[in-house]
Amino acid sequence: MSTDKLILNGQTVADFMKEDMASKVAILKEKGIQPSLATILVGDDPSSATYVRMKGNACARLGVHSIKVVLSADTTTDELIQEINKLNDDPSVHGILLQHPVPNHIDERAAFDAISIEKDVDGVTTLGFALNAFGDAEFPSCTPQAIMRILDFYNIQIEGKHAVVIGRSPILGKPVSAMLLNRNATVTTCHSKTVNLEEIVKLGDIIIAAVGKPLFVKGDWIKPGAVVIDAGYNKGNVGDVDYEACFVPSAAITPVPGGVGPVTIATLIEHTIKSAYKLSENA
């Protein structure tokens, strides 16, 4: 990697991915197959509604059909699972996305695990998590996969490096830690109970911020030459990293917006197209 400052532009990565996806969609349509992604939104959280709309718009640009299932905030776990099972049984649906978070009264894990592994294009099921840990997931969690895509696109060395992941959620922190470990990085996973967090982050060659707190990671936490990946997105269009401060010591850094986000959405659509190919072959 060059010693010059490198801005890890996610839109550039996503655009590169879309070229390949567009050709695959064209091939599927020649076969009479319309790749289709179903998104389920429970309740009226405005941020979640925005994310679903963004994903729908991205699908439309690539010729992927988007099905929106909107359920009321008082939907029960059983009712949600019934809707998921309808989509599982619908051969025209190739991917299912349950928008996170769901209302507190819903058993989110039970709902996630109701999604068929063949249609778990967001990598949220327990089985998908286990397959990811073994390096065998067909559809890894989208944001972790996006992070790995960015690192690879910009030829950032992973093997032998010390990666520090801040956050341990089952759909981001934990799976990206497993992916990095599978690529022969030495991985430290930090969380809310970590003692001396700042000192641990200072040891990292690659820093993954996935904590959900705006501007949490400070510039003096970053050792000179580290690579900083900001997987957070908070109110005010800011990430988990204090970008201006962390820009100075880092060798490479993702912006927010325009970093991990576009690649996450592109990965979701890529998984849906791949699922359409696989399900059509098994039909």
TrEMBL record:
Any one of the GO CC terms: cytosol
Q: Which CDD domains match?
A: NAD_bind_m-THF_DH_Cyclohyd
Residues where NADP(+) binds: G167, R168, S169
Give the Enzyme Commission number.
Answer: 1.5.1.5, 3.5.4.9
Q: Does the keyword Amino-acid biosynthesis apply?
A: yes
Please give the Gene Ontology molecular function terms for this protein.
methenyltetrahydrofolate cyclohydrolase activity; methylenetetrahydrofolate dehydrogenase (NADP+) activity
For this UniProt record, the keywords arranged alphabetically read as follows: Amino-acid biosynthesis, Histidine biosynthesis, Hydrolase, Methionine biosynthesis, Multifunctional enzyme, NADP, One-carbon metabolism, Oxidoreductase, Purine biosynthesis
- According to the lineage, what is the superkingdom? Bacteria
Q: In which pathway does it act?
A: One-carbon metabolism; tetrahydrofolate interconversion
GO biological-process terms attached to the record: L-histidine biosynthetic process; methionine biosynthetic process; purine nucleotide biosynthetic process; tetrahydrofolate interconversion
**What are the Tetrahydrofolate dehydrogenase/cyclohydrolase NAD(P)-binding domain coordinates in residue numbering?**
141-277
Q: Does the keyword ATP-binding apply?
A: no
Domain Tetrahydrofolate dehydrogenase/cyclohydrolase catalytic: residue ranges: 8-122
Q: Which reaction does it catalyse?
A: (6R)-5,10-methylene-5,6,7,8-tetrahydrofolate + NADP(+) = (6R)-5,10-methenyltetrahydrofolate + NADPH; (6R)-5,10-methenyltetrahydrofolate + H2O = (6R)-10-formyltetrahydrofolate + H(+)
Q: What does this protein do?
A: Catalyzes the oxidation of 5,10-methylenetetrahydrofolate to 5,10-methenyltetrahydrofolate and then the hydrolysis of 5,10-methenyltetrahydrofolate to 10-formyltetrahydrofolate.
The record's HAMAP family line, in alphabetical order, gives:
THF_DHG_CYH
The family assignment reads: Belongs to the tetrahydrofolate dehydrogenase/cyclohydrolase family.
> What quaternary arrangement does the UniProt entry report?
Homodimer.
Name-wise, this protein is Bifunctional protein FolD
Q: Species name for this entry?
A: Paenibacillus xylanivorans
